[in-house]
Sequence to fold (189 residues):
Amino acid sequence: MEKIQLQNDTVESDKIIIESINNNDIKAFEHLFKTYHASLCSYCYNKVRDKDVAKEIVQDVFVNIFKNRKSWTPKNSIKAYLFKAIRNRLINYYKHPSRNKKSELSVEELESKEEMSPLEIFSKKEFREAYVKAVEKLPEKCREILILVKDNGFSYKEVSEIQSISVKTVESQMRLAFQKLRKNLGRFH
Fold:
């Protein structure tokens, strides 16, 4: 019962935000930006491994919404709409031949390393590297779904909307991802 109420609250909240943005309410747009910017950048960074490119892609989505604010009407939840828009921009990005991939440590990772012993850093780094490699070995669709669920906190239903697939497909892809990760990361267990 509580989950239904939360979903209804989200739907109502989304309707209010969309309506406010349609009516040129800049504060509503700022709220939208502040609410989703960080998680969109994180999702995008997981795909392109370039913070500047990730920020640029996310910024492009928000600029597009702002330009079309008077007629902006997402069909699903705002969250699903935004992540689907990022996904579409990523598809376009990967079609472009001159993409630059690089890997950077996040501020949080750098700060947390200062508080850990060298052995802990090595163990964590070794596991993280093995995890990243194991995730990269997953089939593309499986990898995308895992990242949406585990890294970005989406429900299976939300992922099904973003990816335009059934909830059952999300479930089977997650099962496959966990099986493959367990197999590839067994030595850490």
Remarks:
- Residues 50 and 71 are 32 Å apart (CA to CA).
- Confidence is low (pLDDT under 50) at residues 1-8, 98-114.
- The two ends are 37 Å apart (CA to CA).
- The chain is about 75% helix and 0% strand.
